[in-house]
Structures are given as structure tokens and as C-alpha cells.
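Thread: "does anyone have the structure for this chain?"

Original post by V.I.:
We have the sequence but no experimental structure in hand. Need at least a predicted one for the grant figures.
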Amino acid sequence: MAGINLVHVPYRGTAPALADLLAGQVQVVFDNIPGSIGHIKTGKVRALGVTAPKRVAAIPDVPTIGETVPGYEVSIWYGIAAPRGTPPAIVEKLNQAVNAVLADPKLQTRLAELAGEPMPMTPAEFGKLVAEETEKWGKVIRAANIKAD
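Reply from O.Q.:
Generated one for you, C-alpha cells below.
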């Protein structure tokens, strides 16, 4: 979308990628904010942009990439899934428990410090999110002709 050519350097996690960024071995890293926010706030790393659709409250001066590249948006999310066939009553009980934890003010404060945002959902809403994300990234994979090695 931006018309740039980057070389992908695979790393086994955030820590070695950030170590190489800090050491000048690589010039840019796409990372989840919680992994790098400490380095951003101390000025060791300069955040160029966030991939989310809106600016992040923890680092409000960092623009979204979409402000420069209209339509660009990549968000990361985490979810909890149960095996197919799990009784609906159990799924509902798990969902209620997870959403209760996400509503806890202490957790919300800690997530905000790490630039995270809770996304409480129903099982149906989560299923819709997974389907939408699968379709979105399927299009990207097909358009870029990405193949598994």
C-alpha cells in the first residue's frame, strides 16, 4: 500500500528483534506496543506510527499509519476458544468469566499502561471477528501471492 520494499527478517520473538533494533542491526521493527512501549517512552526507540485504526492513548503523539497511508489498518487481538462441540452452557459460563475479568478496573488500568484495550464480546461476536479477520488476511495473502515455505 505504501509502495516501499522492506526485507523481512524473521525473529523468534520481540526480545531479539528489539535487541537488534536497539543495536542498529535492523532499521525498523513492527511490534506489538506492549513489547516496545517501555523503549518508546524512554526514547530508546522512536515510534513512527501505530497500525491500529485510531491513535493509542498511551502514546497519543504517535500517528496512525492510516493517517499517511489511507486504508492501512492492522490490529492484533487475543481470544479464548473452546473445542468444537463444547456445550453452550460451558461456553457461556467461560465467556461471562472472561468478560468479568476484562471489566476489572485494575486489569483495565494495566492494559491501558501497555496500550492494550479490552474487547469484551459474546461468543457470536468473537466468531464474527474471527471470520472477518480470516477473510481480510486471506485477501492479503492471495493479493501478495504469499506461499508457505
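V.I.: this helps a lot. The chain is about 45% helix and 0% strand.
O.Q.: and The chain has a mean pLDDT of 92.
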